[in-house]
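DM from R.C. (forwarded with permission)

"hey, sorry to bug you on a friday — could you get me a structure for this? deadline for the figure draft is monday and I only need the backbone to look sensible"
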Amino acid sequence: MFRTALIVTLSLVVGASTLAAVAANPTYEVGISGMSCKGCEKEVKDLIGKLASFKSVEIDLKAEKATIVMKEGSSLMRADVEKILKGSKFAVTSFAEKKAESRPKH
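My reply, with the result:
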């Protein structure tokens, strides 16, 4: 209920075009050390899949990073990823939220 009221208020204050960015699926780029093969990729995907509100993940072995997309309205913290990787051979080396790309106005 509070979330709905907040979104309605935001739409009145900042306009509908900005609201689309607020409601979009949050995406995070996470540097992960210890990945060296397709088996590591699968293991990291399986671990990340345990996150609450997780939607999808893409692994880039060369860049040693994961791009994690969360469900609409959810968020992710570095500590969340560190917790699910704890006890594995993988570790978080960086963490950043990707900002929604703005589209040209027509």
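R.C.: lifesaver. The longest helix spans residues 2-14.
me: no worries. The mean pLDDT is 82.
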